Amino acid sequence: MKLRIGTKHKTEIPANNISEEKFLAASYETIKQLEWDIKYISKSGIIAYTPFKMSSGNEEVTIRIENDIIYIKSETLGSQLHDWGKNKKNADLFIDKYREIESILTEEGTEQALQELNSFIDSEDILSAEKYAKFEKGGGLLGIFIPREGYYVTPILIILNILVFVAMAISGVHIIAPEADDIYLWGGNYGSGTLNGQWWRIFTCAYIHIGIIHLLMNMYGLIYIGLFLEPLLGKWKFLACYILTGITSSLLSLYIHPDVVSAGASGAIFGLYGVFLAMLTTNLIDKASRKAILPSIAIFVGYNLLNGLKEGVDNAGHIGGLIGGVLLGYAYYSSIKHPDNKQTSIITTIAATILIGVSVPITFKATHNSDEAYINAAETFAKNMERFTTMESMALEIYTSPNSSSKETMLNEIQNRGIYYWKECEKILVENEKIAPNNKAREVNNVLKEYVALRIQCYELLYKKVSEETDIYDAKIQELNNKIETTISKLK
Fold first, then answer.
1. CA–CA gap between residue 195 and residue 361 (Å, rounded)
2. Backbone φ, ψ for residue 71 (5° rounding)
3. In a shared domain, residues 278 and 157
4. Does residue 365 belong to any structural domain of this protein?
5. What is the DSSP string of 258-305?
6. Quick one: 282 and 186 in the same domain?
7. How far apart are CA 384 and CA 421, in angstroms?
8. Helices marked H in 332-438 — which ranges?
9. 264, 314 in Cβ contact below 8 A?
10. Between the N and C ends of the chain, which has fewer C-beta atoms within 10 Å?
11. Are residues 159 and 234 in the same domain?
12. Closest among 257, 176, 225 to 77, alpha carbons compared
């Protein structure tokens, strides 16, 4: 199976009746001089990786001979939507260097190159005409939805996620910005439901998506990792990793954010990336492949974790899936290294399932405790806000004082009612800052602190205006009032 996300370039040149031996030797010497990393060698050709670049990743170049024609294909290994001519450049570089070397390669040089290659040549020869045709079969956009050997579970998971989303849309759920209640109704992970008998939400939430953009981004990530990982793990271990890391993702998300409705396949997908990262740090994958793929996978994971720091992104779920995936990747090491030993694979899967199963009630209990603390904090926060509203009203009463009030009365009202109660409001907000139950409450509290600080400044200037019987502070008071209006608008 050969299905890529990136772009590619294909070309061919006549072999001019060259022997397979000389073709292989000339290709090998060409790749050495171009400083590409060899991934695979057979009698019919070579697969190599170009050097990795931080800005653009790298490419896989396949060179093979068939019916006196040399076929060259360069294909991006990353997720680039455009290769900016890199693949054509790779093919041209190879052809130019190959022709130069082939024209001067002697029989002795051919023999020497073949001796170097002999121990690496794969007898199965996946680049032979018959096997390569099967290897290439199944490409194209529709190919991502077709289960086949080495890519069986991934398309089924993609179809399942899409079908769930379509069913949600048909039922009336908004396809761009669905309501939290709708996500919860369809199986989203939420503390008050999950912790009170609806444990199945830690599983179902991985198949619910918060809008079509969320779905498309996650399916893109699933396709990309599925193409690399499923052929290495096999369909059953791949499926086990998806399900189990989806659960570890849900558990950490539940523990960190019990008050937020969470959903999406990204936790399980991060889990698959975690499995792959673990494998890339072992000798399960050949050195050339590790060198080519590890930087791009690490950058992808790092970027998405940093992007997860944005508001509205459940980074706890990402981290929970990633950690679970790394641990599973190492746990499956022996069964991947010895694929014929089915017993090891089964025992590992059962052990991992039991461990994660045991962690479910432990997490639920710990979250229940934190949930109680959250409820207490939320109740105290709400009561404090009621006090704040009362104090604010009392502070604003100076504006209802009669215009005929004496100077002493006005100064007393400003100082002992207005400024006094604003400072009481300030104390309440300082207390609330320590117990804010969630980010939204914390944001509101911060805006109110800004609002109260402006009010105090305004009242202090108002006191000076009345005390000194002057208009010189009017412009500054108006400026502060404008800032107050702007700050109030942030709360709407």
1. 9
2. -100, 130
3. yes
4. no
5. TTS-B--SHHHHHHHHHHHHHHHTSSSS-HHHHHHHHHHHHHHHHHHH
6. yes
7. 14
8. 333-337, 342-396, 407-413, 420-435
9. yes
10. C
11. yes
12. 225
Contact status, residue 237 vs residue 7, Cβ threshold 8 Å:
no
Q: How many domains does the chain have?
A: 3
d(Cα 466, Cα 401) in Å, to the nearest integer? Answer: 14
Burial class (CB in 10 A: 0-12, 13-18, 19+), 54: exposed
Range of the domain at 36: 8-137
| pLDDT tens track, the chain, 492 positions | 233 334 788 999 999 899 989 999 999 999 999 989 888 888 888 988 888 664 456 788 999 988 889 999 998 765 454 566 788 999 999 999 999 999 998 989 889 888 888 877 877 777 776 656 655 555 556 667 888 777 889 999 999 999 999 999 999 999 998 988 899 899 998 877 888 888 899 899 999 999 999 999 889 889 888 877 888 888 899 999 999 999 999 889 888 877 788 898 989 999 999 998 898 888 877 666 666 677 767 777 777 777 666 666 668 888 999 999 999 999 998 888 887 778 888 998 899 889 888 888 888 777 765 556 666 777 888 899 999 999 999 999 888 877 777 888 999 999 999 999 999 999 999 998 888 877 778 889 999 999 999 999 999 999 999 999 999 999 999 999 999 999 999 887
Please indicate, yes or no, if residue 438 is contained in any of the structural domains: yes
